[in-house]
Amino acid sequence: MPELPEVETIARGVNKRIRGDRIVQVWFSRAPQTFKTPRKLQAEGLTGRTILAVHRTGKHIVFELSRSASEIDAQWIVHLGMTGRLLVSSPDFPVPAHTHARLFLESGRELRFVDPRRFGRLEFRDLNRRSAFAAPGDDPLAIGEPEFAALFRGRRSPIKAALLNQSLLAGVGNIYADESLFHSNIRPRRRANRLTRLELERLRLALCEVLNHAIRLGGSSVSDYVDADGERGFFQLEHCVYQRTGEPCRRCGTPIRRILLAGRGTHYCPNCQR
DNA sequence: CATTTCACCTGGTGGC
DNA sequence: TGCCACCAGGTGAAAT
Fold first, then answer.
1. pTM of the model
2. Residue A8 annotated as catalytic
3. Closest residue, CA to C1' of C12
């Protein structure tokens, strides 16, 4: 489900609702791929710890944890994959199918991780034994013009494939790659190293605007995405190309075209994007 | 190393 | 109603 705006929305919602709460008990499903750190270690690490803060890094949600309720000594890192959800629920609310984690909190509420396709991952880090989690790529909302341009120097892959590469930029996914390329008038198949400095700067600014706009609208609810409160986002109403194959371009009326690129459905306006 | 392809999963949709 | 093909917000391993 989730790219940067959806993950940001969820992290903010979870932080607002359970910051300061304490994990008193943990339940995990048996799906082995879900647990990047062995289930037993995660359960032991989480139980009894206080959640000091929750925030987003790239497409990851990071829980800052503490045994002493003051100094951060551990992290719980959640990646939602394609269909993952984090929900803060009352314990009597029915447990959805495909629930893989239930964190029972001191306040009586419950944090649930639900993930039908099981592409999501849960990881626990003891900061006394390992370094803190860091995204490999740069944050597209924080990077400046020269650093952004440098990322694509010498890259011969299509610009869209480079945008999806998380070790370059952390957080851009299929929707926002297509939308930002539309708003900067660039064809997804253009080789990254063939873009002019001016085009790259248009792309950087378009990315910032699209991502910030989407965050303001609570993300894109394409099929079943909901935030920590179960609320849908509204940015899907603003999509110009993503999943609008055959529909008229909002700017020029030309039918939106769909191609396959880097294994992903890719949408663009053949007239506006060059 | 850079790049591309594919497997990993379940569920929804639309055609016949 | 059933069956089948195809599609879906992501990524990491394997192949090229």
1. 0.97
2. no
3. A119
